[in-house]
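Hi R.,

Here's the chain you asked about this morning:
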Amino acid sequence: MLKIAIAEDETSAQTALKEYLDRWQAENGQPVQAVFFESGSQLLENIPQGLQLALLDIQMPGLSGMETAHRLRGTLPELEIVFITSLTGYALESYEVAALDYLVKPVSYPRFCRSLERACRRICQQAEHILTIKNNDGVFRLRAKDLVYVEVFSHRLVLHTTAGVVSYSGTLAALEKDLGNGFFRCHSSFLINLEQVTRLDGADVVLGSERLPVSKYRRKMLLAALAACWGEAL
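And here is the predicted structure, written out as tokens:
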């Protein structure tokens, strides 16, 4: 799940961004958790847990979006920051906070999508998620990036990793939510690591030597998710 904070004081802009996000996640099959704030100060006082991306207007009452970005960067060095503003004179200053993008209002939906997909690629590349798995054999710590895919078998989750296989009692829905961006439910019984996909072959997705089925209604969303993760059109 992509976790986004949006600091924007204009109601019309908030409405447009919400519509864009709803449309984007419907088209791409990527769940988004977005929290809106009316000022930078409000955001800094209530930073969402696990925040990955901040969309900031620059000209807001009180603390500016630029100052908000400086403070966020000090707290969350890995945070992706995108400015969305009607002001064009701050593009150079945005480099000081290592902003990912600078969007000038009015922002078109295609331009918004390109920025969001860039953020997803960066987040996907930076992720170092550690899973703690408990079963009858003991406790295991696994890096999410070492997961190839997960399947449901006999009411258990079977994790296929680059080092071997481990299983435990759990639900695919809960694991999917925990892993978040970078993983995709290609079938009701399979969750795949997008970075481990080597190709699509007919109705299947191929991960190294493994071939898994893709549900017909999920194929289009899988193509979009792979395009966002790989950074190229499919």
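One quick note: The longest strand covers residues 147-153.

Cheers,
M.
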